[in-house]
Amino acid sequence: METSGELRFDYGEATPERLKRQISRLTGMTSAQMSRTASEALAPIGAHKAHFVVLAVLDEAGPASQAAIADRTRIYRSDLVAVLNELADGGWIVRAPDPDDKRRNVITITDGGRARLAEIEAVLDGVNETILAPLDPGERAQLFALLGRVNAHLAQR
Amino acid sequence: METSGELRFDYGEATPERLKRQISRLTGMTSAQMSRTASEALAPIGAHKAHFVVLAVLDEAGPASQAAIADRTRIYRSDLVAVLNELADGGWIVRAPDPDDKRRNVITITDGGRARLAEIEAVLDGVNETILAPLDPGERAQLFALLGRVNAHLAQR
DNA sequence: TTGATTCGTTAGTTGAGCTAACGTTCGTGT
DNA sequence: ACACGAACGTTAGCTCAACTAACGAATCAA
Question: Which residue spans traverse the membrane (chains A, B) (predicted)?
């Protein structure tokens, strides 16, 4: 039986019962699978998850400072610098000093950025479909709801 | 609104709709919360998740070579070395050369190791309860089942 | 006007996951 | 009998994400 490399949670008898009870292990392994699926799908177009997150925030909420983007994306201010550099290099955002507050930059999505966002979104729609393929619509909604409740619960502790 | 540090998935209007649709984002953030919860609970007794996994395998399946442990735990052979060093330092396992195959070590759990396993398991039982607190037994089973199906699906691609 | 706070940035840390290479040992085929 | 490939434990290193610390510049509050 060769199993290495796979992130399969349950190998039947080969998996100790104690491990099968750990929700954090199941969630972690599944999360890793999902994350890898997304990264592999984005790689061919040279995009990263952070690009999607930042462009989505800018498109929906309008121009914002880097600190505001960080707050809304849970990307650290320190890491956001490199992400914005990449997005600016692609012409997908513009980084300009804020005339009203010289500490701030104003980040604005460009038309190219909106096109890029649509491109990435299309890829991720496919990823979601791949991931959720075994579940019917009702089950997908259940999974979102259950995980959402756990997440909200753990966030307020 | 101060939100930093939290891994809350949904901030209402502040969260772009596009992000709320990403199952991998929700799963990833929730997984990170769970993982942190577990690590914080294990820290006071100086234990790591890998300790639990290895001890559980040894307790359930009996003495094994390092390669066999790696196969059953998805811990890489290279990383397993340090984990076993720590477990040996604590007296929880014994690492001895295999007389039948001089390439191998035979790893055996000790009585102390079984006690340690019980200690860690008790902590993780509490972690599971904390994580799953907002869900009733039926919902917990559903979450396991849904994630398990997604995991199995993604594992065979 | 002094002092605390915010902002963008650089640098560095930690941990998990993963690859490469090496010497040793074993199994197989010839 | 012996060469060759594979498996073993180990060391080293890589990547990526999450996170912390510190800094100069700018702003805000006392």
Answer: none
Nearest to B80 by CA among B65, B90, B59: B65
Mind telling me how many Å the CA of A77 is from chain B's nearest CA? 10
Structure tokens at A36: 């890898």
Residue-wise DSSP of A73-119? H---HHHHHHHHHHHHHTTSEEEEE-TT-TT-EEEEE-HHHHHHHHH
pLDDT exceeding 70 applies to what percent of chain A? 95
Test A8 with B37 for CB contact under 8 angstroms.
no
Length, in residues, of chain A = 157
CA distance B18 to chain A (A): 7
Summarize pLDDT for A111-144 with one digit per residue, the tens: 999 999 999 999 999 999 999 999 999 999 999 9
Report the percent of chain B where pLDDT is more than 70: 94
Say what angle helices B111-132 and A137-155 make with each other, to 10 degrees.
Answer: 100
Q: Smallest Cα–Cα separation from B109: which of B46, B42, B61, B47?
A: B61
**What average pLDDT score do residues B62-69 get?**
96
- From the list A7, A56, A151, the residue facing B26 with the nearest CB is A151
Position A12 pLDDT exceeds 90? no
Domains and CATH numbers, chain B: 46-155 (1.10.10.10)
Q: How far is the CA of A107 from the C1' of C7 (A)?
A: 14
